[in-house]
Design brief:
With about 400 residues, this protein is α/β, with parallel strands linked by helices. It is about 50% helix and about 15% strand. The strands form two sheets. Strands 3-2-1-4-5-6-7 form a seven-stranded parallel β-sheet, sandwiched between helices. It has a six-stranded parallel β-sheet with strand order 10-9-8-11-12-13, with helices on both faces. The longest helix has 25 residues.
Length: about 400
């Protein structure tokens, strides 16, 4: 006989352990908790999360900021603390005995925990593991998909091209859609965004986003800003807005914008800046998806350390023809992407001038972006909850030891 909704087979509330790193994972986790609670009203939620997940009802054993470590040097410096945190989490999980463990992004931390839990299941029975947000197996090191399958019973993917890759390696993966596509309107209001930012409606505007991390700004910022200066020489009356992700990014960008009166540095509001603009010059990454959802023409640039690039290319780790998400999702080059040696002031400025002059009239591009938006708009939190609920209902009925 099936247990009542919200209860496990041994007649206690279903328990979900969720572990999220950084603000983006906290946002995903909060939506997932809400959607799971709709299906399991009496469920219990515990693990690692931020303020949004706690507000949704997570019993946070640790804060998600404790996992927010970027870069090799920083990871090595924090490695003893992270290993101690992982050991403590394992002990709590053994004591609490969840029905499902959901690792939300943070693959370097979550995948080893998932693998350890999956290996223990041979003795302990029914615990299922889920990884929410696939690493970029579509871009490089596809072989990781098989190893991820050794950790997760099911992978929840944000993009439609990801499940077929996992299928090639015998891994159960589901496309659930992207929360940003649910959040952003199909028809963004450019006039309202301009009013909020104090931009004139009768003059063109360019948003410049050279990255949200200090390393990216150091590597890309001077090139992007010089390209924007060149664009202002070619496009009369151009308004340039440069969003800074945080105070540290603002401090890094300020000296680059000295003597550039057409440019205005703003705190945050990157999405609003993209919606308000006529074109966007930005670094490759998630911001390109936001620019797509804002239905704005864009020019994408990026470069990594030369040695890193040579190693990655030399070992054949990159398996894609396109790097920018809009081109990957479209399956063809719909926006210019200027990578590594092609990411120059001259190339970026020339492509941006073209985007400003032709982009606004490019109805085909806007329609293509809308079609992609509709594909990604699937109510991701509810889709993810449905995929997790299947695992709960399919779990063995044996009670725990």
């Amino acid at each position: 006989m099936n247990a009542p909704t919200g209860q496990s087979a041994d007649h206690r509330p279903v328990r979900f352990a969720l572990v999220a790193g950084e603000a983006s994972g906290d946002l995903l986790g909060a939506g997932l908790v809400d959607a799971l609670r709709e299906r399991f009203p009496h469920a219990e939620f515990a693990g690692i999360g931020g303020p949004r997940m706690r507000a949704a009802g997570l019993d946070a054993w640790h804060d998600s900021d404790e996992l927010a470590v970027m870069g090799l040097a920083e990871v090595l410096r924090h490695l003893p603390r992270l290993l101690a945190l992982r050991r403590a989490l394992r002990r709590r999980l053994l004591d609490w005995r969840p029905d499902v463990y959901v690792g939300i992004d943070a693959p370097d931390f979550n995948l080893p925990v998932e693998r350890w839990l999956k290996q223990r299941r041979a003795r302990d029975g029914k615990l299922r593991t889920v990884h929410y947000v696939s690493p970029s197996v579509w871009a490089w090191r596809e072989g990781r998909a098989a190893r991820i399958g050794q950790s997760a019973d099911r992978v929840l993917c944000l993009f439609p091209m990801e499940p077929p890759i996992y299928a090639r390696h015998g891994v159960d993966a589901r496309f659930v859609g992207h929360p940003l596509a649910d959040e952003m309107p199909l028809e963004p209001d450019r006039d309202a965004a301009r009013e909020r930012l104090g931009l004139a409606n009768d003059r063109p505007a360019l948003a410049v986003l050279p990255g949200s991390r200090l390393g990216e700004i150091a590597r890309l910022g001077p090139t992007f800003i010089e390209a924007a200066r060149a664009v202002t020489d070619a496009v009369a009356g151009l308004q340039v807005i440069v969003p800074a992700a945080n105070a540290a990014c603002r401090a890094a960008l300020e000296p680059m914008l000295a003597g550039f009166p057409a440019a205005r540095l703003i705190d945050g509001q990157a999405r609003r800046a993209m919606i308000a603009s006529d074109a966007v010059l930005l670094a490759s990454g998630t911001a390109t998806l936001e620019a797509l959802l804002a239905k704005r023409p864009m020019v994408v640039g990026y470069k990594v350390a030369p040695l890193t690039y040579r190693i990655v290319k030399g070992l054949g780790l990159l398996k894609v023809d396109h790097y920018a998400l809009p081109n990957v999702l479209a399956g063809e080059a719909v926006v210019p992407e200027l990578m590594q040696d092609d990411c120059t002031v001259e190339a970026l400025s020339a492509a941006t001038v073209l985007a400003l002059r032709e982009g606004a009239a490019n109805e085909g591009l806007s329609q293509r972006f809308r079609e992609i938006h509709e594909t990604l708009r699937r109510d991701a939190s509810r889709e993810a909850a449905a995929a997790i609920a299947e695992l709960v209902h399919a779990a063995p009925d044996a009670a725990r030891p």
